[in-house]
Structures are given as structure tokens and as C-alpha cells.
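Problem: given the chain below (107 residues), write out its structure.
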Amino acid sequence: MQTSHRRTIATRTLCYTYSGELAKQRVTISISEPFYLTEGSVDFAFSEGTAGCVISFDGLDEKEMTVYGADTIQAIAIAVDALEKYLHRLSRKYDFYFETGEPYFED
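Solution.
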């Protein structure tokens, strides 16, 4: 479910089923454009130039998450890496597929 109002810079659309079920549904995973942190926007200390990206799930009942990097490029890189790791963890609950029907994870 997407609640962020930030501009999307990358998306991936997959299909999923609940493990053991047959009915496939679609999910679009989005990464927002990076944004710079400002005083009071987070509850941890950060250096000037620190940035974040929001990862959201439209069509899947999972909360969006924000990842942070030392700058905007690192925030994007961490978002892509975190997305893959998060989907892998979610694969205990869901089976993910490319829209072609092939499994998203080989294992």
C-alpha cells in the first residue's frame, strides 16, 4: 500500500500468491526519488547530505519502508539492495512471479 507522496523513480511489477494458493495478484514495488534529511525529520543524528528513499508496495498489504544513505546515490543503491532482501524475506509468506509466470526466486 503506497502512502508516500514522493515522486517515483523506479518500479517493478510482480505477481504473487499466498504460499500454497493458486490465485495470482499483482504488486508494484516503487522506489521514490531520494530526498535529503532535514533537522527534525528523523530521530537519529546525521551529516549534511544524508539522503533517504521510500520503498512502497502497491497491491500488497505491507508497510512502506525508508532507507538511508550517506548521499543520494548511496540511498538509491541501498534501496535496491534492501528491496531484494525484503522480498526474499517475504517469500516465506508469498510466492513471487514475474508477469510471464516464471518464479522470481530460483530457490
